[in-house]
């Protein structure tokens, strides 16, 4: 079972840069995108065989997300009731028999950290939500989470300590989640892999020199981590300032529940 997540930094722009070629090549069961920057009716996506679920921001040209899937869900939920960000199109949850899929576009704390307090409130509300879901069935949580968790997850760690996306507070929220029953799938498989990034600044030659950050994640409930086959970063795929990430799970292990808790 294949899952893809990609912050497309504007789906209309990404369509002009090969989005559909990559989408069709991947043939994923679930394809999650963030930062669509448009309303659903403003773009036509010929995705034969896929159900489309969109969560648009009220503000045009801002935020937004979608999930494209071959599998009809049992239920769909938009947001978790968070007051500050519920109008920004930042969460979609699809429920299935074996798991919840939660696609998230986490608010940025902004360069001057003006939104850090709101970001931390968001993290607390999302944590409670994920724990509630996890108590019912396993969770597959993905998206642009706007945090590099450890120093290994960005190129210039020391000079970025305290900056947006690498504050102690943001990193501690991720640490809390991973200590409360969840697994970062990439680090589970590749704990010491360096120079593995998912976002690069548009500044000159930054991506060519691989001066990046790993801020896009697939995180799963610990009880299904033995079903992880691979967790990849497709850094060679262009079209956005982020690259896609891909999670492959063993569907038979999920079905038969031959999983460790």
UniProtKB/TrEMBL annotation:
Keyword Transcription regulation recorded: no
Q: Which SUPFAM superfamilies match?
A: DNase I-like
Q: Which residues form the active site?
A: 105, 144, 242
For site (Interaction with DNA substrate), what residue positions does UniProt give?
242
Q: How is the cofactor bound?
A: Probably binds two magnesium or manganese ions per subunit.
- For this UniProt entry, which residues form the secretion signal? none
Which segments cross the bilayer?
A: none
Protein keywords: Hydrolase, Magnesium, Manganese, Metal-binding
Q: Where is this site: Important for catalytic activity?
A: 216
Q: Does the keyword Electron transport apply?
A: no
Q: Where does Mg(2+) bind?
A: 7, 35, 144, 146, 241-242
MF term (GO), any = double-stranded DNA 3'-5' DNA exonuclease activity
Task: Write down the EC number.
Answer: 3.1.11.2
Domain Endonuclease/exonuclease/phosphatase positions? 4-242
Q: Which cofactor does it need?
A: Mg(2+); Mn(2+)
Its domain of life reads Bacteria
Q: Which family does it belong to?
A: Belongs to the DNA repair enzymes AP/ExoA family.
The entry's protein name is Exodeoxyribonuclease III
Q: Which organism is it from?
A: Ureibacillus thermophilus
């Amino acid at each position: 079972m294949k899952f893809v997540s990609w912050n497309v930094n504007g789906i209309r722009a990404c369509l002009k840069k090969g989005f559909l070629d990559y989408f069709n090549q991947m043939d994923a069961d679930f394809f999650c995108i963030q930062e669509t920057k448009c309303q659903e009716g403003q773009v036509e996506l010929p995705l034969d065989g896929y159900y489309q679920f969109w969560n648009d921001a009220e503000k045009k040209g801002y935020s937004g997300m979608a999930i494209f899937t071959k599998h009809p869900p049992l239920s769909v939920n938009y947001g978790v009731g968070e007051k500050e960000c519920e109008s920004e199109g930042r969460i979609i949850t699809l429920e299935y028999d074996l798991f919840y899929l939660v696609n998230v576009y986490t608010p940025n704390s902004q360069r001057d950290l003006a939104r850090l307090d709101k970001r931390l409130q968001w993290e607390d509300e999302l944590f409670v939500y994920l724990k509630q879901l996890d108590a019912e069935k396993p969770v597959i949580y993905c998206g642009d989470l706007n945090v590099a968790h450890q120093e290994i997850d960005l190129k210039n760690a020391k000079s970025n300590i305290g900056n947006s996306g690498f504050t102690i507070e943001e990193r501690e929220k991720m640490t809390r989640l991973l200590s409360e029953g969840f697994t970062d799938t990439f680090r589970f498989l590749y704990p010491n892999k360096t120079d593995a990034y998912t976002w690069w600044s548009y500044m000159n030659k930054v991506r060519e020199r691989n001066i990046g950050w790993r801020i896009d994640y697939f995180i799963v409930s610990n009880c299904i981590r033995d079903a992880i086959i691979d967790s990849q970063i497709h850094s060679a795929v262009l079209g956005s300032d982020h690259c896609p990430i891909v999670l492959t799970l063993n569907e038979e292990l999920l079905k038969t529940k031959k999983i460790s808790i």
